[in-house]
Write a structure and sequence with these properties.
Layout (H helix, E strand, L loop, with lengths): L1 H16 L1 E4 L2 E7 L5 E6 L10 H8 L7 E5 L6 E2 L4 E10 L2 E13 L2 E8 L14 H12 L14
Antiparallel strand pairs: 1-2, 2-3, 3-8, 4-6, 5-6, 6-7, 7-8
Length: 159
C-alpha cells in the first residue's frame, strides 16, 4: 500500500516537473542524456505562434548564454504541407557562429506551435577571435599543398 502511494506520488511529481509555463502556455518536455530539452509538446489549450519560436527555443534551454541564439535555418527551408502543417527549422548560433549539431524543428498548424524537437549544444565561454590573419592562413595552406601553380594564377582560368 505504502509503495503504491509512493509510486503514484512520484509519477505525479515527475509529470508536474515535466511541464513548464511559457507565458500562459503549458509545455510537456522530454530531456536527452545531457539533460537538455530535446522534445516539447504544447498543450492543446495553449496558443504559441510560429513567430515566437526562437523565444520558445531559448526558454526551453536554460543553459543558453546571452550570446546564443536560434535563427531560421539557411540549409533547410520551411515546409508547408497541404493539410496546413508547417515545419520550420532553426539553427543554433553562438556569437554569430553556427553551432554544429544545434538544430531544432518546430511543427505548427494554422500558425500555432504543437511540437518542437531537436538538439541543443551547450557552448562554454570560448574566444572566437581568429588567431591567424587571412594572409597567414593562406600562406600556411599554400605551404601545406605545395603546388607550383594554382588555378587562380592562370589568367585563362579566371575568365
Amino acid at each position: 500500500m505504502k509503495v503504491t502511494v509512493f509510486m503514484k506520488m512520484t509519477v505525479l511529481l515527475l509529470c508536474a516537473g515535466a511541464t513548464s509555463v511559457f507565458g500562459q502556455s503549458k509545455i510537456q518536455k522530454e530531456k536527452d542524456a545531457k539533460d537538455h530539452v530535446s522534445f516539447a509538446k504544447i498543450t492543446k489549450d495553449t496558443t504559441l505562434r510560429l513567430k515566437d519560436a526562437p523565444k520558445l527555443l531559448k526558454e526551453l534551454q536554460p543553459d543558453m548564454k546571452a550570446a546564443d541564439e536560434w535563427k531560421s535555418s539557411v540549409k533547410r527551408q520551411a515546409i508547408t504541407e497541404s493539410n496546413g502543417y508547417k515545419h520550420q527549422f532553426y539553427q543554433q548560433y553562438h556569437k554569430g557562429i553556427k553551432v554544429e549539431g544545434g538544430e531544432f524543428s518546430v511543427h505548427a498548424i494554422n500558425d500555432s506551435i504543437e511540437l518542437v524537437l531537436g538538439n541543443f549544444e551547450p557552448i562554454g565561454d570560448i574566444n572566437i577571435q581568429a588567431k591567424l590573419s587571412e594572409d597567414n592562413a593562406l600562406q600556411s595552406a599554400l605551404n601545406h599543398i605545395g603546388a607550383e601553380v594554382y588555378k587562380w594564377q592562370i589568367p585563362e582560368e579566371e575568365k
